[in-house]
Amino acid sequence: MLLEIRDVTKTYRGNVRANDGVRLSVGAGEVYGLLGHNGAGKTTLVNQVIGLAAPDRGSITLDGRDAIADPGYARRACSVQPQAQVPITGLTPRQAIELVGRLRGGEGAIIRRRTADLSGALRIDEWMDTDAARLSGGVRRLVAFAMAAVAPGALVVLDEPTNDVDPVRRRLLWAQVRRLAEEGSAVLLVTHNVVEAERSVDRLAILDRGRVVAEGTTADLKAAVGDDLRLELAVDPVAASPILPSFASRVAHAGHRIVATVPADASGAAAAWAQAEQRAGRIDGFGLAPATLEDIYIALVGGDMVGEPSAGGDRRLPTFESFAEGSHVRAA
């Protein structure tokens, strides 16, 4: 494996444990997702991988070398798109991308060609010679991705790469992420967007309060819920929520949506209940489908879409071991 993280723990002042015994590995040519709510410990872990912070204990090996003992090597071996917008005011996108490529040791002609390839693939050609101060947030985000991809290291770290990016160019960006992996880099994708993670990664780890609570492929994690179904309701967020039937569990609220899990053998009853609620005007619409990665995420971390603790303990699985029994999912 190109990246090996073993038992990494980081505690901040006030006994706040950002990482708690994190163990994971990422191979060359793999897109690996690090999924979790805001504050789950994702960015702290990334800062330790790229040599910007040291763990209290544990080990990080990058391409066979100790990244903790040699943080300078870690920074050279990694290309990073940070979560915050990169400070490129005063430069054009072309200048910013080519500058990073040259700083990373790329030969001029190769970097210029690679910059042109990326700008065309991401459809940002028309802005390449525009002062960065005049760019939209989405275009700046695409430029930041190109800066990380123009001369990629052995490990490419992308922290929420699609923030502010429009849907069309988001798809183009994901194609370039896959291209990085196909050309040999390991890609560590940090996100709290469950839908994008499901579409884009080869394997992923789910973090909750600094711990890896599950790891595996999306197929592995989905198989762990068996035949459970996803019941999604469209509701008026300012109106009273409908009273869900007793067989609905792992309930989460997000704006105009309520999402719950129902057993496969209750599908008929769930559809009948939802139809009655819609006729009565208590919901605007509903859908019933196989469970998604989002349902797995909710089952593991509980609570709402940003990972707050569930109000009812019975809505959270008692242990992940029982949840994953018989599957290929690795539990922490």
CATH homologous superfamily grouping of the largest domain: P-loop containing nucleotide triphosphate hydrolases
Known CATH architecture of the largest domain: 3-Layer(aba) Sandwich
Largest beta-sheet characterization: 6 strands, mixed
Number of domains: 2
Distance between the termini: 19 Å
CATH topology term of the largest domain: Rossmann fold
Shape descriptor:
globular
How is the largest sheet built, in terms of strand order? 6-7-8-3-9-10
Q: Which blocks of ≥5 consecutive residues have pLDDT under 50?
A: 304-332
> How much is the radius of gyration in Å?
22 Å
> What's the average pLDDT?
86
Helix content: 25-40%
CATH class of the largest domain reads Alpha Beta
User: Order of SSEs, N→C?
Assistant: EEEHEEHEHHHEHEHEEHEEEHEHH
- Strand-residue fraction? 25-35%
Structure class: alpha/beta
Number of helices: 11
Number of strands: 14
Task: Give a quick precis of the structure.
The protein contains eleven helices and 14 strands. It is of the alpha/beta class and 332 residues long.
Describe this structure in words.
The chain is an alpha/beta fold and 332 residues long. It folds into two domains: 3-216, P-loop containing nucleotide triphosphate hydrolases (Rossmann fold, 3-Layer(aba) Sandwich), CATH 3.40.50.300; 224-320, Alpha-Beta Plaits. It has eleven helices and 14 strands. A hairpin with a 2-residue loop joins strand 4 and strand 5 (65-66). The longest helix is centred in the middle third of the chain and has 16 residues, at 167-182. The model is unreliable at 304-332 (pLDDT under 50).
